[in-house]
Amino acid sequence: MDFELPEELRLFKQSLRRFVDSEMIPVERQTTLEDGEKLKPEYYQRFCQRAKELGFWKMDVPEAFGGAGLSVLARSLVEQELSRSIALPARGMGGITGPSVRAILYSLKGEMKEKYLLPALRGEKRACFAQTEPDAGSDPGSMRTVAVRDGDHYVINGVKRFISHADEADFMQLMAATDRAKGSHGGISCFIVDMNTPGVKLTARYSTMMGDRPWEIVLENVRVPASHRVGDEGEGFRHAQQWLGAGRVRHGARALGVTERCLEMAASYAKQRSTFGRPLADRQAVQWMLADMYIELEAARLLVYKAATGLDKGEDARQDAYVCKYFCDEMAFRAADMCMQIHGGIALTTDLPIEKFWRQQRSFRITEGASEVMKMVIARHVLKTYG
User: The CATH number of the domain where 133 resides is what?
Assistant: First the structure.
């Protein structure tokens, strides 16, 4: 509900809406290269320039480092509005918001800061994040990639899977177990590893239904200086948690945009399309689908704004973020599915964006914390609070 937003954010949201409606949606089927992972150069340059003009360039980079330093709530509005179009790749918004640096790198100091953080902020170096493994996705405690101390170095062995943009990265933020017995509670450390380090190999590449092509990374006796460990040994998962909350809210914000576009398309089509002599909009079955989409969208909007505001205030908003990701990702997939059902056969074609919304939203119920894991941690909170 927009009346919850401060005046400056309402105006910001309106400018984003105009940009998406007039400059993205009309060209959304022609903006990416054939693999769907990258924007064509002309659209990348155009959208980056508009991002600078509209104020969301480097939106998650603090002002102290030359960024816009937008609040989590403001960034949520950007995600929400841009997600109303399929003009951008699903992962990373095509880079049109500028270099994006995970919170982990901001804790680097001295030489490491000069070598990795600052070049990443300037767009001179790119990073990938390597945590997921064949047997450790939503359960990082079962991680099998192991880092063993050997004097002034660590020797790392293991396999990482589904690592986006690994082929373009100069270095990775690698999570590895330094004490498997402790699992995610003090047993995982974070390392900065150059991609050209001996023993780092890109092996399999996976073609996904979303259009992106993440990599598998094999590490064989990779020697990494102890100075490349981020923070103390065993603090890796704590560092990762710094951005997980905002990332889950980002999922929710993206779901708002998808659901709103699906609702717009479904309602419009229901008025235009007639069957058996009456418009679909007269059919109660269709009316109820539209009503369900609208009700859930309004509820989800409040969840996103509440969680984002809590994070901006520095509150412990983990539970809000869990609820936000679960409810919104599930909601947006239902919305895309109902939009597809209302449109019928035409929705199965690539002439409309519905099939892409459907594919993307189905993936978000698994990635960055599966729905079942979200419900598991929510259930723990419920039993602790209400039991």
Answer: 2.40.110.10
